[in-house]
Structures are given as C-alpha cells and as structure tokens.
Specification:
The N terminus is likely disordered. This protein starts with 17 loop residues before the first helix and ends in a 9-residue tail after the last helix. With 100 residues, it is of the alpha+beta class.
Length: 100
C-alpha cells in the first residue's frame, strides 16, 4: 500500500489520524470510486469487491463494496492504518469463528 511521506488527508490531517476518520464521508466523496479498478473477493462467487484507490493527498485508501447490479452503495473506505490494523487482527485470529 502506498503512503505519502508527509501527506495529509483531505481535511488536513495525516493518513490514519483520528480527524481523518471523523471525515469519512468527505473522504469517500473525494475519491474517484467510479474509475477505481474493483476486484471480486475470493472465493469466486462472493459478492464483495475491493479497490485500492489513490488520492491526491498521496495516500492509497482501501474501499469495499457489495457487488450489486442495482448499485454498489454504500462504499466503506479505510485509511492505511485502519486496513493494517484489520489485517493484523486477521493474522492474530481475532475474527476466527469459535469452535462448535
């Protein structure tokens, strides 16, 4: 994932700052989600899509949406630090199903 070395978010905060998280609606609106290269999450047949979307602030954000022929709203947008925290949780087993 690409990060700007001294870049700021659309609200003037650094990538992943809490003030950036407070303006998620503004961030999603500022990203070019229509021309983003969306990919389907594996396994095949799933209906979740993701895209790595660069922003003019030099930061690449992660966007998730359901693949829906009637519209793909809402789109969830994650900062690099949010995505890194999610991946760390997956690796640590935080989202594993409990044993039956």
């Amino acid at each position: 994932m690409t990060r700007g070395s001294d870049s700021t978010g659309p609200d003037g905060a650094g990538p992943g700052d809490s003030s950036t998280q407070g303006d998620k609606a503004g961030l999603a609106a500022a990203l070019d989600l229509e021309s983003a290269p969306w990919s389907r999450v594996r396994p095949a047949g799933g209906n979740l899509e993701y895209a790595f979307v660069p922003h003019t602030d030099g930061v690449t954000y992660v966007a998730l949406r359901y693949a829906d022929p009637e519209g793909a709203e809402p789109v969830l947008v994650f900062t690099p630090s949010e995505w890194d925290a999610f991946l760390a949780g997956v690796r640590d087993g935080e989202f594993d199903r409990p044993p039956d």
